[in-house]
Amino acid sequence: MRSTASYIRIIAFLFLAYLLIEITVESGEQSAFIAQPLTWLVLGMVLLFIIAIEISLEALRSILFHSLKPDAQERYILAEKAKKEKQFKWIKSIYLKLLDSKPVESEEEIILDHNYDGIKELDNNLPPWWVYMFYATIIFGIVYLVRFHVYNDYTQAEEYETEVAEAKIAIEKYKKTAKDLVDVNTVTLLTDASDISAGKAVYTTNCVACHKADGGGGIGPNLTDEYWILGGGIKNVFRTISEGGRDGKGMVAWKQTLKPVEMAQVASYIITLEGTTPAEPKEPQGEIWTDPDAQK
User: Fold this and answer.
1) Contact 180, 258 (CB under 8 A)
2) How many angstroms separate the most distant Cα atoms in the chain?
3) I need a labelling partner for 148 at 20 to 30 A (CA). Which of 63, 113, 129, 285 fits?
4) Which pTM value belongs to this model?
C-alpha cells in the first residue's frame, strides 16, 4: 500500500514540473498549457516517470522487508505504526485547539439543565476561530469608521471615477497594441517592414486589378501622385478602403472582407507609393491633399 509521503512526493514533483514548464515555455500572457497543448504531453510523461520511480522504490522496500528476519519485520511494522500515529499530529492538535470542544467522554461536565423531549443541550464554548474572526471584523469596522467617516477619505463615487479613468487609460493602451481593434479614429501609419510587406500582399491580392501593381491606376485612380478624390493620409485612406469610394462609381467597401489590421496595413502600403514613378500613370483625379497636422 502506497504511503502518504509517497503521494505527497508525487504531487510536489508534479507541481514543480508544472512551474518549470510555465517558466521555460514561451506563451505570452496565456498559460503555457493553453498556448502550447504539447506541454500536457510533457507533464504526463513527467507524471509517468515519477510514478515509475515511486513504484520502483516501493518494490525495493518490499524486497528489503521480506529479506528481514520475522522478529525484525515485526519491529519494522511496529515502528511504521508508531510513525503513522505521530504523522500530522501537530495539525490534529491545532485543529482541536481551534474547535475547543469537549471530547464525547467529557460531555457530562457541560450538559445544561434544558431538556426537550429527552434532547439535552451542551454548553460548548464558541470555537476560537470564530471568535478571532469576530474580533477581526470589529477591528476592521473601527479602522473603516475612522478612515472614511472621521478623516473623510475618498468616497465611493470618487473611487468609482478613479477606477473608470484607469480603465479608460488601460483600454487606450490596449488598443495601441491590439491591431485588430483599430478603426478610423485610432488608426496610425504603420512603418514596420513586416506591416508594409503584409500590406503589399493584401494590395497584390485585392487592389492590383483596378490600381495596377505599381499603383499607376487603371479603372481606379493613380495612387502615386499627390491628388486624392476622398482625401489622403492614413485615416482618409483607411476610411475609403473600409467604407468604399463614391456612391455608384467608386470602390466597394472592404470592411466585410478585410480585417481592420489588414486595412491598416494596406493603407500604410498605399501611402508609401506616393512619389514613386509608375510605368503608365493615370492622369490626376481629385485635389492635392496636404496633411493639416503637418502645418501646425
Assistant:
1) no
2) 110
3) 129
4) 0.46
Residue-number span of the structural domain to which 65 is assigned: 4-87
Q: What angle do CA 278, 283, 287 make, to 5 degrees?
A: 110
- As given in the structure block, the three cell numbers for residue 284 are 490626376
CA atoms of 25 and 27, how far apart (whole Å) = 6
Number of CB atoms found within 10 A of residue 248's CB: 5
Classify 80 as helix, strand or coil: helix
Q: Is residue 56 part of a domain?
A: yes
Q: What are the E-state strand segments in the chain?
A: 111-116, 119-122, 227-228, 287-288
Residue 136 falls inside a structural domain:
no
7-10 contact pairs (CB < 8 A, 24+)? 9/50, 9/54, 10/47, 10/50, 10/51, 10/54
All three cell numbers of 187, joined, read 488608426
**Which grid cell is 19?**
512551474
144-178 pLDDT, tens digit per residue, is 999 999 998 988 899 999 999 999 998 878 776 77
CA distances to 98, 138, 260, 287, 291 from 221, rounded to whole Å, are 83, 76, 23, 12, 20
The one-character DSSP state at 153 is -
Asked if residue 207 is part of any domain, the answer here is yes
> What is the rounded distance in angstroms from the CA atom of residue 238 to the CA atom of residue 62?
75
Give the burial class of 215: count Cβ atoms within 10 A of its Cβ; 0-12 exposed, 13-18 middle, 19 or more buried: buried
From 55, 87, 119, the end of a domain falls on 87
Region of 100 please: left (phi>0), alpha (psi -120 to 50) or beta: left
- 174-226 tens-digit pLDDT: 776 776 778 888 888 999 999 999 999 999 999 999 999 999 999 999 999 99
Q: How many domains, in total, are found in the chain?
A: 2
